[in-house]
């Protein structure tokens, strides 16, 4: 579009541009130019500076304001060569200046250069549109993944069963808090017979979906279904009984190395609890040490560590025996609690965990486990870098 109050000037420019294969429309005033812009979207506007009603720079400003999403290359035609005038034109949105009288060769050279700029802009717009579409697709995929992972988290929480169960005078509370949507920790319990029950705490190496899948597979080994639980068998009296904890650890170690076909391993504590006598028989396979808090507040750390499950064939495991009396409680926690690190780089450790238990001595059950998590998060400044899981076994006898 050529905009100029001089018909002769417009005609001269139109002829030069038409000979160069440009399609040209003319406007005598800025108002007429704006009307034509609403009907037809030009790629270029060549506008004189001084016109009736609106100057060339004012026309450019109006074009930029009303055509935010459509770029028009704007060239001011002027006899004004003062730097202040050129600065004003640029502030109004002009892209180029041509001094009157306009030389045809100079004009066409500027037009070709402007075409290259417009082509680059069109390519950038196409690339931006493609990128926008791609990002939208990725957002949709991410939303679908988040929904799937949220459902997986809910299912993984369901692997624990009831968060708090009771066997006679003994209460078992469980807590699982993955660092991400899903994690590699698991804690659970199951009845063995009228007198005894089993508890297990597992921490699979690694994090995320891969660890969660192995955790889910291991959960089937401790199924609530008596026919599928590898810890159980039918004794000579035709009653369900539990395999000794050490024997179960050896069996799972062999299973990991021969049947699971994975480079992962896991730490574990498996315990058989007699809720009548209070006797606890357990095996520690690389899991953090269990901690007993007696009714009088004294703390005892149990076990010698042991090897994780799935590392060495024919690994040796030791049985740990402890007796819980009324008011005593046994905590089995994953390293997500003990290895929590403050902003200063200090590890919470067993002493820190014992301090939290003493501080919350009057709290029990799920309340104690949740208080421990909040204490640990306060210690780390809100950061959780590893999955957190815990089992709390409490003897609720008459003197508790």
What tags apply to this protein structure?
400 residues; alpha+beta; Rossmann fold; Phosphatase 2c, domain 1; 2 domains; six-stranded antiparallel β-sheet; five-stranded parallel β-sheet; 10 helices; rod-shaped
CATH topology-level fold name of the largest domain: Phosphatase 2c, domain 1
The low-confidence runs, each spanning 5 or more residues with pLDDT under 50, are none
* Rg calculated over all Cα atoms: 39 Å
SSE order: EHEHEHEHEHEEEEHEEHEEEEEEHHHE
For the record, the CATH class of the largest domain is Alpha Beta
Which secondary-structure class do the elements indicate? alpha+beta
3D shape = rod-shaped
Offer a concise description of the structure.
It is built from ten helices and 18 strands. The protein is of the alpha+beta class and 400 residues long. It has a six-stranded antiparallel β-sheet. The protein has a five-stranded parallel β-sheet with strand order 2-1-3-4-5, sandwiched between helices.
Task: Explain the overall architecture.
- This protein has 400 residues and is of the alpha+beta class.
- It folds into two domains: 2-124, Rossmann fold; 161-395, PPM-type phosphatase domain (Phosphatase 2c, domain 1, 4-Layer Sandwich).
- The chain has ten helices and 18 strands.
- The protein has helices at residues 7-19, 30-39, 56-66, 83-91, 104-158, 208-221, 245-258, 335-338, 349-359, 365-380; strands at residues 2-3, 26-27, 44-48, 73-78, 96-99, 164-167, 170-177, 185-191, 196-204, 232-234, 240-242, 266-274, 279-285, 291-293, 299-301, 319-323, 329-333, 388-395.
- The strands form four sheets. Strands 6-7-18-17-14-15 form a six-stranded antiparallel sheet. A five-stranded parallel sheet has the order 2-1-3-4-5, with helices on both faces. Strands 8-9-12-13-16 form a five-stranded antiparallel sheet.
- Strand 14 and strand 15 form a beta hairpin.
- Helix 2 packs parallel to helix 3.
- The protein is rod-shaped.
- The chain starts with a strand and ends in a 5-residue tail after the last strand.
- The model has no long low-confidence stretch (mean pLDDT 87).
